[in-house]
Amino acid sequence: MSAINHEERVRHEGLREKIMTAEQAATFISHDMNVGMSGFTGAGYPKAIPAALAERMKAAQARGEEFKIGLLTGASTAAECDGVLAEANGIKMRTPYQSEAALRKQINAGETHYFDMHLSHVAQQSTFGFYGDMHVAVVEVAGILPDGRLIPSTSIGTNNAWLNNADKIILEVNSRQSLLLEGMHDIFDDIGVPPYRKPIPITTPGERVGSPYLTCDLDKVVAVVLTDSPDRNSKFADPDECSNKIASYIIDFFHEEVKKGRMPANLLPIQSGVGNVANAVLAGLQASPFENLTGYTEVLQDGMLDLIMSGKMTQASATAMSLSPDALDRFNANIEELRKRIILRPQEITNHPEVSRRLGVLAINAMIECDLYGNVNSTHVMGTNMMNGLGGSGDFARNAFTSMFVSPSVAKGGAISCITPMVSHVDHTEHDVMVIVTEQGLADLRGLSPRQRAQKIIDNCAHPDYRPMLQDYYDRAAQTAGMQTPHILSEALSWHQRYVETGDMRVKKGLALAV
Amino acid sequence: MSAINHEERVRHEGLREKIMTAEQAATFISHDMNVGMSGFTGAGYPKAIPAALAERMKAAQARGEEFKIGLLTGASTAAECDGVLAEANGIKMRTPYQSEAALRKQINAGETHYFDMHLSHVAQQSTFGFYGDMHVAVVEVAGILPDGRLIPSTSIGTNNAWLNNADKIILEVNSRQSLLLEGMHDIFDDIGVPPYRKPIPITTPGERVGSPYLTCDLDKVVAVVLTDSPDRNSKFADPDECSNKIASYIIDFFHEEVKKGRMPANLLPIQSGVGNVANAVLAGLQASPFENLTGYTEVLQDGMLDLIMSGKMTQASATAMSLSPDALDRFNANIEELRKRIILRPQEITNHPEVSRRLGVLAINAMIECDLYGNVNSTHVMGTNMMNGLGGSGDFARNAFTSMFVSPSVAKGGAISCITPMVSHVDHTEHDVMVIVTEQGLADLRGLSPRQRAQKIIDNCAHPDYRPMLQDYYDRAAQTAGMQTPHILSEALSWHQRYVETGDMRVKKGLALAV
In CATH, what is the architecture of B266-360? Predict the structure, then answer.
């Protein structure tokens, strides 16, 4: 337990009396409980309780007792949260998103039930009890005001709902998070109960409609734990040639759309998934002539911070910050100024279909693979193993003014084609995918029938190694009876099957193309 | 050309001068044009122009000239519209929905490019030119006021957008439609241009926020054609035992949800797809103790009309009426009273994610098949042939408070299982499907991992003939490495393949289960 700063950070008298160690606080959590933790893309997750809880789990298991919880968060956390709990084999059910190696292994081994869902739905469906009761909330905050209002941390996620819904609340007060975050958040979640709901009043990405503070019933707070640990800091790879090509096609596309009068000269609010390719697109916008950009997205990462700091982007709305160590330093050094341009909201609002459809976001999200007809797989490796989860991609793609999915055309040194005859899992249907981009080029699928889409994807997006194989599949499929979406059912998933069996989707020389 | 009623129906002097025959009016349409026609589920489609246009097409083709158009509507039309144009092989591109046999044949033969899309997107994407220019609008109306405002017909669909976007307008004034429809419509479409849009102000299904009339630039009207023909009138089958069982499970589910406090005693606004099963559910509600129901749906069909007429349902919002001949008589006999409870809106508004998410609709839609993991196919027969299209099912399922998909557990006398290992096409992903219902039972999938879903769907929804086959597939798949979504890739689509080859998904006696 760190003693530093707790006078400054925990300014409510009654809550100060509840300060205890993580080990003590973890005793409020027992087997079979549903626990709602803070955390979104490695930002603002609890740093101490999960490890203490994992020790309790291991001790119980050593005594021959079961100790597993249902774990709900905003999105992904880190090794100190999902990781330690998974290693203790303590997660029975997990939702809505994860990206941690140990947990992924548990999920794919069938040890953990993972329920993969749209991030915009988490608060509503949990509040209405679709996932059972919420027993304990564990929420990281930057500080507690004298009246008990909470200064949120580097992510909001679903914290507001966990605080409202849980029977008991444990607060982690992390003195490593800047107190200058105060005022950056906008907690609006009073959207009512159906069918008596009012419109969400946001009409620009930067509009503030709520309070900068989280609140809760202070009587429910059973423990306050002091921590002093940084968020997971992932360094992004510098944009490589592949990412830069993808970025350049997207920026060319934006230029064309502006020229056609479909969007204003400063574009529409940008939503960008997390990752190296997304970061390269944002870096490409930095070098572009576009000015006065706005962002309405889920996660603020390095590239978007740079756009804001350079003045290229005037407003950005997100629910979390996922910054590299360098970017975090820049952020902290300029936080007073950045507070005027960055807003952190609950994920129910950042990802809400009402707002993204209204604003008309430009959605750019990564994919694992897409097929000839524009169906996209964002989650599964070879149809059966979970990678991370859907995240907010569906919230945005469905409601975007333009929805784009991006990926290098091949993976694993060319052994996997990211364009396949049929995807092995569908997260975004042909109806929700407007544009596909790889380093080979861009395929604008809007208004095209499946057959027209297939030819465009083969020509513009497939890797040259796989283009003849795709063309061959498509040509033979188009000989069959059903010409809306030509497929050879016995062969549609054979590329994945071949990869599982041989480690390569390509047919070895001397073998026939067909299975 | 019918002379009846045209004094009463066309009350604008200038437009009266533009009255001409359908043959004359059809000359405004030529090869390669995009034509936006009215029509939604066989209601309010043009009755005369399509046939006249088809004759022009056939004459041109007889001269060796090409004559094909891009045809956009609200949704499905009828034999006199899609049918005659398809039979003339005159449709190059079709969107967003169809259900006509001749057109379906053209699509599946590869003669027509069919672009299947969410109905809520049609107006926006067409207005912004995603599908090219709109050359001619052909819109059926019930009458024209002295100042040129238009009394809409039995559907609104995307008529408001066609009238705004088209270079030229042809109006069909159909004296068979009741003039008492005047006042039943609510044309609100001033939702602005992104990113400068305001909230859609609808907060209850029955709220009127626009005008009862369509308007257009009268200078763009090149022709007025008088018609006197009924809409396509489909008789619904009387609910059978299978439909009644499905309805009873859904009503039990609603009771449970009310008991759990998840929705009020008068339920949430009901959205129901079109068809016999949906109609049976509505009939089931008629017999249930629920009172003061509301509807926020796409199409008002017999069952919903009965709920309104009996007083069980107080408000219903839709974009079209699709009534059997008997129900139409009841409707017309009571239209003055019904006008207080029924509102017809543009499909962009009935299907808008903003409104359905806000109100929290209970979405009940039919499916062709679903798989072990809750992915739903609404459109494709054996993966390659188009049935009708997606319609509004995705608009509603994604944003519903509870999304349900219903089907008998088998089709074709048992030769097809509507629960399959993997669906042959995905229209609604596992993330958008909360409840599956067949005559065998109901599977509530909320909060369940894919493996949990599989067992529940097998146990509750599969037909006994197929239950052991599904269990066998699942058990063997669960031996593979990827336990998030167990599949045997080489076998996942084998049931469909077997049906194509043998006409039966069941394995014949004496053959092994595996392919």
Answer: 2-Layer Sandwich (3.30)
